Amino acid sequence: MSLSAQPARLNTSAPDFEAQFAARLHWSADTDHAIEQRVADILDDVKRRGDAAVLEYTARFDGLQAASMAELELTQADFKAAFDDLPAAQREALQNAARRVRGYHEAQKKASGESWTYRDEDGTLLGQKVTPLDRVGIYVPGGKAAYPSSLIMNAVPAHVAGVGEIIMVVPTPVRGSVATGGTGVTTAARGERNELVLAAAYVAGVTRAFTIGGAQAVAALAYGTATVPKVDKITGPGNAYVASAKRRVFGTVGIDMIAGPSEILVLADGSTPAEWVAMDLFSQAEHDELAQSILLCPDAAYLDAVQREVDRLLPTMPRAAIIAKSLNDRGALILTRDMEEACAISNRIAPEHLEVSSSDPHRWEPLLKHAGAIFLGAYTSESLGDYCAGPNHVLPTSGTARFSSPLGVYDFQKRSSLIEVSQAGAQPLGAIAAELAYGEGLQAHARAAELRLSTVPPMRGAK
Ligand SMILES: NC(=O)c1ccc[n+]([C@@H]2O[C@H](COP(=O)([O-])OP(=O)(O)OC[C@H]3O[C@@H](n4cnc5c(N)ncnc54)[C@H](O)[C@@H]3O)[C@@H](O)[C@H]2O)c1
Ligand SMILES: N[C@H](CO)Cc1c[nH]c[nH+]1
Ligand SMILES: [Zn+2]
């Protein structure tokens, strides 16, 4: 069957642009009732029945049969064996990627992740104590592709922050088993473990790991089961089921953000070879049918050229079916009046990844406000950021870059305020606090402050 990919052609000057634009924009799990309902049911079930429910869903959605959760636990020996067995080039690539990601996150910690204090003129000490989380759960996706790079992007900043225990979940679906929501495949004996993922767990350092995925894995981490330890926070990307589950368990545990199906927006001035841009659009479309790839450009002939490259290159891609579905359903090539308008539209979309494919990217960068990551210039392909540039590739999707940031060391830390008031400092602060506390009708607050004054006044409103 020959496939074709026809992203929607939009024109900002067309009278129906706004309607067409809105129709293409953010899809998120919470607008899909069927996914929401299924995820809610899975979470409830795992909360009630623990391991037994996780085993059932793993058989149903991943086609992976196991008699007990112990069978689904990976060991440190598995990690080391996978690492030792890798071809040297893959071992080196993993280590180089981890080294660059570590360097970036160490710099990030230095810049904004350390405790700080100061003393005011009365000798009162004020500040913030930064502490790492005790135990985190990292979700490493594994449904339609394997993601050793996501393991590195989660585990490395957790280590830089000083997290005590890292519990990883990763689905290992049996190939050919399709998570249909029905019974799925129930005869296969073992999921396909990805050796690079196991080796990455060795390189990046993971405490415990389970081959479970989807909403059931998120539930196991959030509520804890007899086998899977309850964590303080769940980080990491995943498909619509994972994103929805994370949103629902927030409050029971912390979460990093909504990092759902991947997105790329390319802002092009027409100076980058069309082939490069077409492949960059493919690079995110190939993740998931629900991924979104958009090109904004003020040059109609360039949009035509990129479409021609899409047509030419698609048949060469092993994941052509996923790419075609993603581009047909969610992709768009948008003709803008100029680059300024393209920047404004990009801000409205707030994409996960934003490539500024221009000969003068620094001219446009100041106009760009909302994006998970901004890639400047024709040589900065988004895929370099996915693996090894250094910054984190776990990024907010579905327009949540308007209020969320990339995964970072800060996601694995929390902060406590530090306050040490000197005797001299207690005098002015006591007077201010007492005044406000009486105003709120909270006498005990007022009195606690006044008792520390050198001259203690009578309590106002005493009985
Ligand atoms: N935003 C980011 O930072 C980022 C980074 C990497 C990957 N991603 C995205 O992560 C996603 C990975 O998705 P994936 O599918 O490959 O792996 P995944 O691990 O996220 O999802 C697989 C799991 O989904 C569940 N599932 C699938 N179909 C189901 C159904 N019908 N009913 C119930 N559960 C079902 C199964 O339990 C399965 O184990 C992609 O969308 C990719 O674009 C995002
Ligand atoms: N582009 C993904 C984030 O949306 C990350 C990734 C991992 N591997 C390849 N790509
Ligand atoms: Zn990617």
UniProtKB/TrEMBL annotation:
PROSITE patterns: HISOL_DEHYDROGENASE. GO terms for molecular function: histidinol dehydrogenase activity. Substrate binds at S262, Q284, H287, H353, D386, E440, H445. Binds 1 zinc ion per subunit. Its cofactor is Zn(2+). The keyword Amino-acid biosynthesis applies. NAD(+) binds at Y139, Q216, N239. It holds the Pfam family Histidinol_dh. Zn(2+) binds at Q284, H287, D386, H445. It comes from the Bacteria. Pathway: Amino-acid biosynthesis; L-histidine biosynthesis; L-histidine from 5-phospho-alpha-D-ribose 1-diphosphate: step 9/9. It catalyses: L-histidinol + 2 NAD(+) + H2O = L-histidine + 2 NADH + 3 H(+). CDD domains: Histidinol_dh. Its EC number is 1.1.1.23. The active site is at E352, H353. Keywords: Amino-acid biosynthesis, Histidine biosynthesis, Metal-binding, NAD, Oxidoreductase, Zinc. The keyword Zinc applies. Belongs to the histidinol dehydrogenase family. HAMAP family: HisD (MF_01024). Catalyzes the sequential NAD-dependent oxidations of L-histidinol to L-histidinaldehyde and then to L-histidine. This is Histidinol dehydrogenase. The gene is hisD.
